[in-house]
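The methods section describes the discrete structure representation at length, but only in general terms. The central task, working out the structure tokens from the amino acid sequence alone, is never made concrete. Nothing conveys this as quickly as seeing an actual entry. For illustration, here is how one protein appears when written out as sequence plus structure tokens:
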Amino acid sequence: MTGNREIHLASRPEGWPTEDTFRIVDTDIPKPGPGEIVVRNQYLSVDPYMRGRMNDVKSYVAPFALDAPLDGAAIGEVVASEAPGTAVGTTVLHGLGWREYALLDATAARPVDTSVAPVSAYLSVLGMTGLTAYAGLLGVAAMKPGETVFVSAAAGAVGSLVGQIAKLKGAGRVIGSAGSPAKVERLRALGFDAAFDYHDGVRESLRSAAPDGVDVYFDNVGGDHLEAAISTMNLHGRAAICGMIAQYNDTEPPAAPRNLALVIGKRLTLRGFLVNDHNDMRAAFVRDVAGWLRDGTLSYDETIVDGIENAPAAFLGLLRGENLGKMLVKV
């Protein structure tokens, strides 16, 4: 092949992105210079945080540039190398997704062992997704055995792992919310003690599922889910704020939570976090998760969309909640 397809950001969306937000661009396959490698991407990740990067605002990560390829986690095979120590044929994890071929400095790529797990797992359960679940639950929220845990967007990539890890680490009760009856059934199959469809009413459903209150809330949604969790949380409850997908496309300020005053009397802790702040937990994460995968006590779901040209559709589907587990694009 002599061509390389990339997905560029064509415009900054107001509210919900559309297919017109993106543009497919044909370029030449890059050639490596000294210390560089070219990777033929096999899988790329689409993630909710990418919606924020489409806005031209200051945040914890730089916004995507207009008329330039987007980026994000990807995994693939080295097809050309001018870097001593990185051989052609090596499978590497890196940060230049949304394209078929990526040119990068070899130091920015991490080799992975494909004999341990399928290639795609390094973008989900063994990658940033898994560490986010592990560090948020055990580090940020400091879950203790016997506690009741509530997870929003629990059938998603992070949430489904949070619930399972909570059970494996001794949680007394684990509750999840999801967006369809099929997803609710999947949560029960994964070992959640209770699960509900948020369309049936978040606050009422959570109160019914957690009659003795919630000690730990892992928030992927924000809005009405956070409000319901605050109402239901016990004294000294902790919330790990991972994401707020319910309001990423809103053009007006969110209506909820309207009960933040409860944080005072209940002495709650609401703590936002980024996974990169918790690399000190990576060794424990790899040890635990590898063991759970090996003995079959941890499961993970992937929704795979085929073709780089369908990456925008995969991302839009993610925002609409069409994925079960991790949303990936097979390049």
